[in-house]
Each structure stands twice: as structure tokens, then as C-alpha cells.
Amino acid sequence: MLEPVMFTGGLYKHDLVVELVEDLGGYVLQKNVTQSEVILLILIPSEDKPVLEALIKELRGELVRAPLAGTEVAVVTPTLAIHHLPHTACDIAEYLRRHGSKTNMMGLARGVGREIAQINEYETALINEHDAAVFIFGNFRECIRRKESLYRNITVPVVVTGGPEIDKSELPYAFEYVSSIGRVAHRARKATEIGTLDSIIESVGRALDKTRADITKDPLTTSPPRVMDAVREQVPDVEYSYSPLPIALNLGGVRVKLPYERYKDAVKAVTFDEGVTLGEIATIRPSRMKDYILVRILPASETGYIF
Questions:
Q1: What's the burial of 45, exposed, middle or buried (CB within 10 Å: 0-12/13-18/19+)?
Q2: What is the DSSP string of 34-96?
Q3: What average pLDDT does the segment 175-190 reach?
């Protein structure tokens, strides 16, 4: 099992960390350089983590677990109107990105009104393509309770946020509920507000860890980062995608941001060193997001092997 971690340290000799990760069979998902400091989001085999920790200690760096690394999270508000899209939504989305997740913000087409709020099949399917979802509600307890119908049929873990204190038992379809973050007219600056954002990160992290634990019961045939590297190498047109992240990682696969009809055959034909093609070990279908290509890796119970 690959462990998601984040390295923070000096730019000098950070290439030793990159080389060690690659030698151990891990992956560097993201690299951010700020003047003399570098931040690396890494996936490393769990059993080899002590080796990496020893090197980073020698380099006087810091290594912390980053459960959001290599995941995609939907940040959902009832609508994109100013009534439902306050500063809170932007704060949450930005904070999730800072901790390693790829986020997509969504506003529902029919989310207005406590009694008549709805979510359609297209929106449900799009949210289900993510690893988790954060539903952002306001300050009214009864409104939050009534709008559980918006995420009742969502199959990925859902973290609900709102202003009032509500017992988790009152929201049976939510993975967790985080209070004290309703509608506010300013960006989060106070220590208490940042603390609430940290609570959301912890809740989403627990949800993603639960998904990882479920996957280990029936492991994927291969790892999503390996699929990402193979697609990037054998479908070079992906590097010319206008998206800032041409291949988005999920816990169960990847989203390749190329037109489905034009590139589906090329993606299916991606071949691994073991002699199998991606089409043999994964389902490849059109994504609900801009006609991209959604790759979902099949579990070992269906293919009969792991590599």
C-alpha cells in the first residue's frame, strides 16, 4: 500500500529525496518551489517509509502524512449564486488544495429552497467520480437537516459543513459533520476559523483513509500513479491539454483530460511492461466532466493478478 506523505525542506539536495522515492517504487505527485524551500507530495510504500524518514532527518527536513495527496474532492454548494457561495466555499476549496487534494467546485442547478432543493442524475454521477465530497450549507439547523436529500444517493463519503452544532445522528447520510463554519462575509483569518478549516481537512482525511482501507480488502490490479505515468509516456498529446492538471489522480484510477471519442482507443492501448494493456485491467468510459476520459482500475478479484 502506498502511503501519502508531504516533504517540506530546503531546496538544496532535495533531489536525493526524489531519487530515493523513485528507487523505492514510490511517486512524486507534485513539486512546489518557493525561493529556498521545496514542498513535495509523495506516495511511498508503507514498509519503506522509515528509510525515507531517515534521509529527511539527515537533511533537516520535515515529513508528515498527507491523506489528501493524490485524491480529488468535490466542493459542493446548493447554487453558485451569492446567496449560497460565500467566502467559506473558496476558503474550504483553497485549504483542501494546500493539503494536496485536487478540488472541483460545483453549484447545483436546483439547490435553492429548503423544501424544493434537488440534485439531478448528472450532478450525482459527476460527484461520484470524485473520492469524497464536501457539502457546504449555512446557519439554519432545519435547512441543513432537510437538505440531506441532496447527498442521500452519493456513493462517495460526504462531509457536511454548517454553522450550528448538530449531532451526527441527525445526519445519517453524512460521513461527518463539521460545525462553526456557516455563511460569513469575510475570508477565514482568525485562529478559530483556521481551526475549523483544519477540522474539515481531518474529516476529509478520515473519509479518504476509510476508502483506502476498503480498497486494501480487494486491491487494485495496479496503482493509479503507475497508470498516470504510462498514459503520460504513451499518449503524448495529454501534455498539450489546456487543463493545468492534464491527468487527475483518484484513489481508484485517473481522469485523462482529453476528448473521449478521439483518444479512447489510444488510452485503452497503453501497454505495461507485464504485457497487458490498460483496456484489459480497467474500465474506460466518458467522464461527466467536459467529455474527458475516466479510467477506473479493476480490482484483483476481477483480473486475477496484481502488478
A1: middle
A2: ETTEEEEEEEEEGGGHHHHHHHHHHTT-EEEE-TTTT-EEEEEES-SSTTT--HHHHHHHHHH
A3: 84
Query: Whose CA is closest to 174, among 159, 163, 164?
Result: 159
Grid cell of 189 as nine digits: 483569518
Lookup result for grid cell 493478478:
305
How far apart CA 197 and CA 293 sit, in angstroms, is 32
**CB burial string 248-282: b at 16+ within 10 A, e below:** bbbbbbbbbbbebeebbebbeebebeeebebbebb
CA–CA dist 170, 115 (Å, integer): 18
CATH superfamily of domain region 72-215: Response regulator (3.40.50.2300)
What is d(CA 266, CA 258) in angstroms, rounded to the nearest whole number?
11
C-alpha dist (Å) from residue 170 to 144, 146, 192, 206? 10, 10, 25, 20
The CA-atom distances, in angstroms, between 84 and each of 90, 134, 136, 162 are 12, 14, 8, 12
Q: Is the CATH code 3.30.70.260 the one for domain 2-65?
A: yes
HSE (CB half, 13 Å, CA atoms) of 298?
A: 14
* More confident of the two residues 14 and 294: 294
Give the list of residues 6+ apart from residue 57 with CB closer than 8 angstroms, or none: none
How far is 292 from 231, CA to CA, in rounded Å?
14
Candidates 216, 280, 293; CA nearest to 253 is 293
For the chain, the domains span 2-65, 72-215, 224-303
Strands 253-256 and 247-249, sheet pairing: antiparallel
Distance from the Cα of residue 280 to its chain's centroid: 25
Task: Quote the DSSP letter at residue 275.
Answer: S
pTM: 0.91
Short-list 45, 51, 64, 43, CA closest to 16: 51
DSSP code string of 177-204 = EE-S----SS---SHHHHHHHHHHHHHH
Reported confidence tier of residue 184, pLDDT bands at 50, 70, 90: confident
